[in-house]
Structure formats: structure tokens, C-alpha cells
Amino acid sequence: MVAMAPAHAMLACLGGGVLAAHAVPALAQPLPRIGDLLGVERRVPGPAAVALTFDDGPHPQATEQVLEVLRARRATATFFLVGEQAVRHGGAAAEVAAAGHAIGVHGFRHRNLLRLTPAQTVDDLRRGRAAVAEATGLDPWVYRPPYGVLSGGALREARRRRWRVVLWSRWGRDWRADATAGSVCTLVVAGLAGRDVVLLHDADHYAAAGSWRATVGALPRILDAIQDAGLVTVRL
Q1: Rounded CA gap, 150 and 23, in Å?
Q2: Is 95 left (phi over 0), alpha (psi -120 to 50) or beta?
Q3: pTM for this structure?
Q4: Could you tell me if 79 and 124 are in contact, meaning their C-beta atoms sit under 8 angstroms apart?
Q5: 105 to each of 20, 146, 160, how far by Cα in Å?
Q6: What Pfam families does its record include (predicted)?
Q7: Three-state DSSP class for residue 118
């Protein structure tokens, strides 16, 4: 028999109600109605607004190139930073803040929260916030869990901190090894409309090596599509 990891062993001992409270928030992304009931956001106000969001950074090369495209197009975005990467690449994190973009927390490490105990989750969010605040000089108040998988512990801690929990309504699947600038752009812009929250990545720390290049290549085309549709980018 394979030994169970500590967190899995803990979950195996939980009663059905406790387990549901832990796991049901993970359905907020695939089942938007559940997200609505839990107060999890995936849209922005304003019929002409689109929120570009970037997860998993900062990255010493990718973040800089994404910032350059946004700067050239006078577009704004929100970056959900991973605490351990903000520690490693503090200069890139500081550049995001200096450019005027919104800063969010993506945790300290990039882990599936369903595999963590509530105490481990609280510690991860605490360390993530501290690392992001230290690197950027800003106290973040928006949060997105890794993989979009929210747990009961993370939701409670986010509420305690008065963070907005924001997932997404469109994505480019730009973390994949087979992603191209064309594929990322097509997925994002097909049916793009006001109030959409777009998920992209400005790093490959937890994805296929070099996948961020597809994101950088797609970004100007995505911004063209937003402008052509009469929409504007907004920060969360």
C-alpha cells in the first residue's frame, strides 16, 4: 500500500461536511454559479472594460517584455505575483508596480490548495502577501489561487484580509508546450466582450519552458482586438 501524504491523510479523516467546505470552493472556476454564491469574481464592472491579468511572475525576461508591450500600447493590467518569485526577482516585481499596474497575490508557492491543510494555506497566503508587499512596496488586495483552485481555507483567509478573489472568464492556455502566439490570441479574442477577465502568464516557472514567448507574441494582437472592439483595458 502506498503511504498517504500528510494532507491527504488529514482529508481522509474528515467528515463529509468538513470535506465539502474544504473542496466545494474549487468548483468556483468550472461552475461560475458556485463562484457567484461564494462571492468569487470573474467579471469586471463596465460594459466596455476588459481586465488583462498575468499569473505566475515575476520573471526576469518575460515580465519585462510584457511590460514593454503594455507600455507601448498604453494598456493597463493586473499581475498576480508568486511570493517565492518576488523574492528571487524583486527587481522585476518592482518594475510592475512602478509601471502603474495592479498587484495581486498568487500565494507564496504555486501549489494546489486542496492538497494543503487550512493552517498550511493560511501560512502560504501570509508569506505570499509579505513577499509581494516587500518587493513592490504595495499591499495587495486582490487574490487568485494557483490553477484557479480555491479551497475553503483560502476563501476564509481572503475574506478575513478583505481581499477580492478574482478568477477569469477567458484564457489563452499559454502555459502549454504547444502554445503559439496565434493559438493564444485565437482563444482569447474569440467572443471577447466587455467585462471579460483574461488570464495570461508572464512566466514559465510552473509551465512549459519558454511558453511565455507565445504570450508576448500574442499580446499585441490581443490589444489590437480589444481596441477594434471598442473596449478598454482596466486594472482590477
Answers
A1: 8
A2: alpha
A3: 0.91
A4: no
A5: 25, 10, 15
A6: Polysacc_deac_1
A7: helix
Angstrom CA distances, 142 to 81, 109, 159, 167, stand at 11, 17, 11, 10
Which one-letter DSSP state was computed for residue 227? H
Instruction: State the Cα–Cα distance between residues 11 and 151, nearest whole angstrom.
Output: 12
Long-range contacts, stretch 117-122, CB < 8 angstroms, 24+ apart:
117/6, 117/7, 117/10, 117/153, 118/22, 118/151, 118/152, 118/153, 118/156, 119/153, 120/7, 121/151, 121/153, 121/154, 121/157, 122/153, 122/157
Weakly modelled stretches of the chain, pLDDT under 50: 1-15
Helix (H) or strand (E) holding 6: helix 6-13
Evaluated on CA atoms 153, 149, 55, 168, the torsion sign reads: negative
Nearest residue to 77 (alpha-carbon basis) of 185, 226, 217, 228: 226
Give Rg (Cα) of the chain.
17
- Specify the pLDDT at position 20: 65
**What structural domains does the chain harbor?**
6-233 (3.20.20.370)
Please classify residue 136 by burial: count the beta carbons closer than 10 Å to its beta carbon, then call 0-12 exposed, 13-18 middle and 19+ buried.
buried
Give, as one character, the DSSP assignment of residue 169: S
